[in-house]
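Input structure tokens:
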């Protein structure tokens, strides 16, 4: 394989590792991420299991970025369940995580 091709593949892989693949939707921007102790007056609406790639070309992605992307996907999913808040319900495993979805603002409606 030529040197230029190897450099191009390597640069492409690094670029993909740095990319954000889970943009936050307009509705997801309004959804909060809280800890379990902060949802006392909230109503549980369901759960969302989300996933992203945790490896690209066999290289493990940055764990912080993976966690942020999973939160963004959970926030994007919450409005479909009539929720405004998400709480992590499981640890991240192989790029997958489950979140509970709650309605905390005006929970009776």
């Amino acid at each position: 394989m030529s040197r230029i091709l190897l450099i191009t593949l390597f640069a492409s892989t690094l670029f993909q590792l740095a990319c954000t693949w889970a943009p936050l939707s307009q509705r997801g921007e309004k959804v909060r991420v809280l800890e379990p102790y902060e949802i006392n007056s909230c109503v549980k609406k369901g759960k969302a299991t989300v996933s992203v790639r945790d490896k690209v070309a066999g290289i493990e992605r940055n764990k912080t970025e993976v966690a942020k992307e999973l939160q963004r996907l959970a926030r994007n999913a919450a409005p479909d369940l009539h929720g405004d808040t998400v709480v992590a319900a499981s640890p991240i495993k192989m790029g997958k995580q489950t979140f509970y979805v709650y309605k905390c603002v005006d929970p009776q409606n």
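The mean pLDDT is 86. The radius of gyration is 17 Å.
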